[in-house]
């Protein structure tokens, strides 16, 4: 059995992708496998910081465009992983700075239907849901909703669709040296599926009682290996790098390579 520990911390003999979600490890000396045996790889444990942005310039959903008394204003959200309260905090600070009213616009959840209410605390306040890069779509207000608000006093609206703040359902861990698992009906190299089970910016701990086995390691001499984290749609994760300008939040993966006969006994 060969144990492997991989991290995206950028140590020597590794290279890390711009998003921080893919690590290539270079082995010196190479790992040599017995050509008379068949091997498989398993993910024994993982520690992954839950920081993948749900609002960002890349996702084109980081703008709130509103008007007050006919004057237009824009709130731009920094790339990040936001809960509804975080969104309200940014809006309150921004409207206080722009129009001296921290309660101008607030969002409230309807937990029964997963929709979101938007409350306007005075007359002639509106939001343009169809604005470029609008945040309103993930809050359940499609662009076709257009302009909402402009009440004669305070008032509220409810989104016509469920909110979609939590777009990351699970994190897939893949290795490029093996095949034999499946993503739906497609052959894949997935060795782990991690469900976020903590609050944003905390660390997800993955330690399966029965680790997934990905058989058919396709080389006998392993000189390098790439481990990649993707979302459920097989899109590379953004580990909080803000398009490559910041250091990624760290993850670490513990794996083993073992003969299939031996692994089946564990």
Task: Supply database-style keywords.
266 residues, five-stranded antiparallel β-sheet, mainly beta, elongated, 41% strand, Jelly Rolls, 19 strands
Write a short abstract of this structure.
With 266 residues, this protein is mainly beta. It has helices at residues 84-99, 260-263, and strands at 2-7, 14-16, 22-32, 39-49, 63-68, 71-76, 105-110, 115-120, 125-128, 147-149, 155-158, 171-175, 181-183, 186-188, 190-194, 203-206, 213-215, 221-230, 251-259.
What does the secondary structure layout of this molecule look like, with pairings?
Layout: E1 2-7, E2 14-16, E3 22-32, E4 39-49, E5 63-68, E6 71-76, H1 84-99, E7 105-110, E8 115-120, E9 125-128, E10 147-149, E11 155-158, E12 171-175, E13 181-183, E14 186-188, E15 190-194, E16 203-206, E17 213-215, E18 221-230, E19 251-259, H2 260-263
Antiparallel strand pairs: 1-19, 2-3, 3-18, 4-16, 4-17, 4-19, 5-6, 5-9, 7-8, 8-11, 9-10, 12-15, 12-18, 13-14
Describe this structure in words.
By secondary structure, this protein is mainly beta. The chain has 2 domains: 2-52 and 168-263, Jelly Rolls; 63-158, no CATH class. It is built from 2 helices and 19 strands. A hairpin with a 5-residue loop joins strand 2 and strand 3. The chain is elongated and about 80 Å long. The termini are close together.
